[in-house]
Write a structure and sequence with these properties.
Layout (H helix, E strand, L loop, with lengths): L2 H6 L3 E5 L5 E7 L2 E8 L8 H9 L6 H4 L8 H17 L5 H16 L21 H10 L4 H18 L28 H10 L5 H12 L3 H4 L7 E4 L2 E6 L9 E4 L2 H8 L20 H14 L7 H14 L4 H8 L4 H25 L4
Antiparallel strand pairs: 1-2, 2-3, 4-5, 5-6
Helix pairs in contact: 4-5, 6-7, 9-11, 9-13, 13-15, 14-15
Amino acid sequence: MDGDMRLRFPGLMEETLPSGNLRYRVRVKGQKTRKITLPIGPEHPDFQEAYSAGRRGERYASSNIVDRVEAGTVGWLVRSYMTHLEQMVATGSASALTLKQRRGFADRLLQRQSSTGRSSGQPYKNLPMLIPEAELLALVDDMMATPGAAKNMMKFIKAMYAWAVPRKHCAYNPAAGINVAYKSKGGATPWTISDLEKFRARHPFGSMAHLTLTLFMFTACRISCAVTLGRSMEQTIHGEPWLAWQPIKAGSRPVEIPILPPLLKAIRAQTLIGPTYLLTGKGQPFASPEALRNAMQRWCKEAEIEGKSSHGIRKAAGHLMALMGATQYEIMSVHGHAQASTSQVYTEGVERRALAQQAAAKLGGMDW
């Protein structure tokens, strides 16, 4: 990147990807470590607007990028599908988190350049909407350093074409036969008793960090719900305080659980009261799950806990409930799971140990 570009766009970085494509990122003003990927390059007429949004810490929406695309192109298809998804979120038929994730993949798809055939070097946005299978396979190969992201990218592309085919936008789904070889590593690591003790020792009762840990532990909520829970969701059932909410994740069941004494005590100990239980240092609700996630990472680092997340607390709660004798369906009601198989992971090991103990007792009674 030349010096003139650096003077005109402070904080702008040009990076060459393994595919040979260029990627532009910009540092958020006032936050040296935070960088936002720009969906378009300096040659695009909307680049100044995208750059300015990045400097403010905002992502430039993909729908803005493709306003002037031609019908029948990948850009037109992406815009049409994302508009449909936005409408689904508005009516409660899809998750806002799904929309946010797919916006990121939409931007990445639009800024990619073709690597095969006569279209090599041209941006996908301007090419015919039926992306050849060879191109999609090249896209997957370029993303295999992060197989989880590659899998989600193909999930987005398949969903987009699955929406387009019955509406006669496309004759077929070119991504239908492409699968990403990805084996889950088990997700977030559950917190140990030692982790919980170290966190509480560093962040004592009455602190926002302590309340956050207590809220995760005694509600087993997802971080997307934690930033929304507050006193307005409290209710009294048979004279006891309960908390009721509808998880944001699509397909989740409503959750109603008693507010157990440790959580109630931590909530009532807060002197700063706002619309949500969890507040920033400025007394405001966290702006997003990511903002709370960043705070948790900082609190964990201060407590010398490595490699753990808030979702690991949710897992720890599930395992502890199982150890205390909770059934698969009881855990379902707390976690908001719609499928019993999702909660089975917590009870299976405990039940197998109980069966092994019973079997061993019988074996030990044999006349040998």
